[in-house]
Amino acid sequence: MTNQSQSSLYQLVVTHYLLAACSFLAMAVMLWIASEDLNGHYFHPKLLAITHTAALGWATLIIFGACYQLLPVILETTLYSIKLSWLSLGLFFIGLIFLVFSFWIFEPGIIMQIASVFLLVGIVFFVLNMVLTAKQVKNQNIYQEFMVTASIWLLATAILGLLMVFNFRYPFLPKDHLQFLKMHAHMGIGGWFLLLIMGASAKLIPMFLVSTKQPVKYLNVAYYLINISLLLFLIDTYYAGINFKTYFIALIAACGITAWLAYVLECVFSRMRKTVDLPIWHTLLSFILLVVALIVLPFIIYHQLKENPLAIRNSNLYGTLLLMGWITALILGQTFKTLPYIAWVKHYEHLTGKGNIPLPANLYNNGLLKVQLVVFSLFCLIFYVGLMVKSTLLVKIGLICFLSTALLYVANVLVVVFHKPKRISHETV
């Protein structure tokens, strides 16, 4: 890759990280404003706005940025088009702002409809870029399958989301809106986030830990079980809603996740790098939060079948565990594995072997990251207990921790982005 292309890619990726950090901060503020609504029904204007800020502005934007940098590395090729990526980002972010605003005031009119079209087109350009990048590689592998399939699930999620937006004003969908909302949510969580995270982590975790064992057979099992469970869930939920078969479908998904966690554990136990750094501690915390969310899932199904209002409260707990817990913890850690590496490549890679240059881990503030881990762990303990016992006080204290986490995270991202290269042998690096 030429220096000019590398610089363009760096600007593209860093812009995604900065916009995602801003979205994270905005989400934390919105959560504080809407804290008293968190114990109500999840189909609430402010909660819909927060959910889309979390899923699209926070998680998806940072995944887009990481994919543009890491997919070519993982597949040992080049990104198909940087221009297409910028176009995707522009449309996606404009659409996101107006979609979130429309949900917040709940005005499902022309602004929400145009915003959803912008988002869909932005996602189409992203998926096109991913598929065309992957097609440049002759030898297919399971990591590639995970990432391309996840992109297709994202596209399917966005298409259903678009249909639901238009369904607000021009009802045409043949089933209840909440039924489609469940399908839309699980396509996004299971198809997009879960598969993408599985594929990327399967490659990155052994690389970061220098693992000697990478049992790919577990990844194959995970890939097929997750996709089968998602397809069964969509078909069954469309025709029959939540029913006793949903337990069986959830069990298939749980087996898939277990296979992936078995792969991760093999990588952890066979690691040559014995020291576990702070980003990896965040990652391990995210796995715990994912397991807790899976434990909640059967209770949602049970109460849903009993038509018990506890299904709503458990659904809120499940959703926040996934978005504010699992995915957020993972990003909080992996940002400081990927972003410093991206900055290091720009500033120092060409000087490898020419002097004493910093490592990627030297580009962020370790003290800030340590405090971030403590504060985020406090959030997990206080907020989720507050949500379970319906304590507004505990929920608000937890959200103060969440807002503090967001401020610490943004500050540390800025430390990396505005890093000043060191001088080596009287030369400005």
**Overall 3D shape:** globular
Would you identify the regions where 5 or more consecutive residues have pLDDT less than 50?
Answer: none
Largest sheet: 2 strands, antiparallel
Straight-line distance between termini: 19 Å
Number of strands: 2
Number of helices in the DSSP assignment: 12
In N-to-C order, the SSE pattern is HHHHHHHHHHHHEE
Strand content: under 5%
Q: What portion of residues is helical? A: over 70%
Overall residue-averaged pLDDT value: 90
Structural class label: mainly alpha
Measured on Cα atoms, how large is the radius of gyration?
Answer: 21 Å
* Sheet with the most strands: spatial strand order: 1-2
Organism: Pedobacter aquae
Protein name: Cytochrome C and Quinol oxidase polypeptide I
InterPro entries: Cyt_c_oxase-like_su1_sf
Keywords: Membrane, Transmembrane, Transmembrane helix
